Amino acid sequence: MLTDQSEARQTRRYVEKREGILDAAAALFNRKGVRGTTLSDVGQLVGLNTNSITYYFRKKEDLVLACLMRTIEEMRGLAGAAAQHGSAGERVAAFIALFVARLARTAAGERPELMSFREIRALPASHADVAFSAYNDMFRQIRGLLRDAMPADPAQNPAQRSALSARAHLLLSLASGAMGWIERYEPADYPKVAQTLADIVLNGIAAPGTAWQPELDAEALLPVLGQPETTQQAFLRAATELLNEQGYRGASADRISARLNLTKGAFYHHNENKDDLISACFDRMSAVIRDTQALVDEMPGTGWDKLCAVSRALVHYQFSSQGPLLRLSIYGALPEEMRVTKMQDMARLSTRFVRFLVQGMQDGSIRPLDQSIAALQVHGMINAAVELRRWVRDATSDNAAELFVRPMMMGLLR
């Protein structure tokens, strides 16, 4: 018969081993994706066989859900702590500082990785419903940090509620996006990075006196929108949608063909294999961004004019009939060789935003700030726009700039 002390030791060992499994799994899911990670992979990291892992988590989906729920609970804790501060600006700055401090503890080896939210869509419906419900609660809590930031009561004003939800999505996207780039900084510099990030999020990019430009000739900057879609382009669009929704493993030839009401045979008539098609999806995204940047670069105007134009055009593309662009979070689930090549290409395109920022600082239209972090935020905002309709159902190519681009450029609370 077990004594109370023996039961306590067994309970402690169980909890410690379970937490160790969650730590290892979150790191693997972030790097290889849910469909690219097996229970055996997790077991190898913690010294257990697959049968032993199933003692703690019966199925891989149970393990994924547990990792996501643990991260959501941590994020809710950070939001709750930030909510104790006074003004909306102070709450936002506190949330960013607390989140980056949590990343610093991961970098120092003190805490495990937080799991990326991109894998929620890879779960079966029964698990996804639980995860989305918890995520929605977390989102509402983060949106609460922005309370009193709107001139009218959002609960009584649908337009204000849409604006508030869009800004909450922007805040969460820019903060969590730091997981993908903060490793380029020394952990000792993380607090300064948090201050810079909070300054850009709260105060925007525009110099004092610089006005928001509400007009955009989208077709001039996105000539592809005026061209008829070929069958191959339709495959690229469908594959992009599935990659965004279900990740690399979920974007199968069967699913891509079914989305276009075509047979699997039609898929292989137009595409050599799935990896070639997915590589072409990245090339398509790079071409859209590169061509738009090049067209804007030849335009007259200030650096501010150009940065706003390229940002608004690319967000417009997200909502167009030929959009969306690929979500940046898909990189983690790609085969290693493809991941390295495509990430290098996208890093170069992200760096091109720096050119407009520097020009704007030189001509006085953009305030002095850290160009590298600001460029990452602009790129992150464009990427996050693909998810905007989840939080703002009436988001369209016509109003997305006001809802999403303007708060990024002018400041979240302005």
Rounded to the nearest angstrom, the radius of gyration is 22 Å
Write down the CATH class of the largest domain: Mainly Alpha
Can you count the helices? Answer: 18
Note the beta-strand portion. under 5%
Low-confidence stretches: none
CATH topology of the largest domain: Tetracycline Repressor, domain 2
Alpha-carbon distance between the termini? 66 Å
The count of DSSP E runs of length 2 or more, i.e. the number of strands, is 0
Order of SSEs:
HHHHHHHHHHHHHHHHHH
Number of domains: 2
Helix fraction bin: 55-70%
Structural class category: mainly alpha
Q: Could you tell me the mean pLDDT?
A: 88
* CATH architecture annotation name of the largest domain: Orthogonal Bundle
CATH homologous superfamily identity of the largest domain: Tetracycline Repressor, domain 2
Question: What is the global morphology?
Answer: globular
Q: Quick one: biggest sheet? A: none
Write the layout of secondary structure elements.
Blueprint: H1 4-32, H2 39-46, H3 50-56, H4 60-82, H5 88-107, H6 125-144, H7 158-177, H8 190-203, H9 218-221, H10 231-250, H11 253-259, H12 264-270, H13 274-297, H14 303-318, H15 336-363, H16 371-384, H17 388-391, H18 400-410
Tell me about this structure.
This protein has 414 residues and is mainly alpha-helical. The chain folds into 2 domains: 4-203, Tetracycline Repressor, domain 2 (Orthogonal Bundle), CATH 1.10.357; 218-410, Tetracycline Repressor, domain 2. It has 18 helices and no strands. The longest helix has 29 residues, at 4-32. The model has no long low-confidence stretch (mean pLDDT 88).
